[in-house]
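Researcher: Go.
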Amino acid sequence: MSQRLLVVDDEESIVTLISYNLEQSGYTVDKAMNGRTAMEKVKSNTYDLVVLDLMLPEIDGLEVCRQIRQEKIKVPILMLTAKDDEFDKVLGLELGADDYMTKPFSPRELVARVRAILRRLEYAPEAAEAEKAGDRIKIARLTIYPDNYEVYVNESQLELTPKEFELLLYLANNKGRVLTRDQLLNAVWNYEFVGDTRIVDVHISHLREKIEPNTKKPVYIKTVRGLGYKFEEPAGL
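Model: Structure:
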């Protein structure tokens, strides 16, 4: 059974272009021309990925993204924006988008991005054997279940986006190692992100808000100034 995607854009020509290329690549594609219809479809159907334009009538793409995450729908979101504006990109990521592309874009690149996101979800990195206890990774109060895409702090399950989960899992699997932002981009996003390491910083900030006892004094994800980040097992937890 082919994977089912939702393409949301208010320009019919773009919806047609994206849908054609995705369908030619073997995906089943639903379409929406505005944010309200997109939310109705997401709530009533199960999608493997949503391609979501930022500028939409009725409900804009940022609000659609926010509502999807508020509803705890874990579908990956690839956001499209005609604005080459860092604020819009970062805000989209902060609201739960997993990736973004700036218009105009190559249909071939978009299909490649979609494939990369879906491939990462299908083949989540395996935990290092030394860190595994059955099918879980246990680090202090943090427990990660790679196969189920679930994370717990003590007994409380965290709500992570797919990209946040993949980043956390990669950090945990490389515990104690200093990882540069470029390394994290290549490992987690699976391609060069044109040097835009801000995407890493945004996701690290999100993870800290969810797993750290005190975000101002992180004990799991440490910043190594001038280099990147290091995941540690905190003492006393």
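Model: The chain has eight helices and 13 strands.
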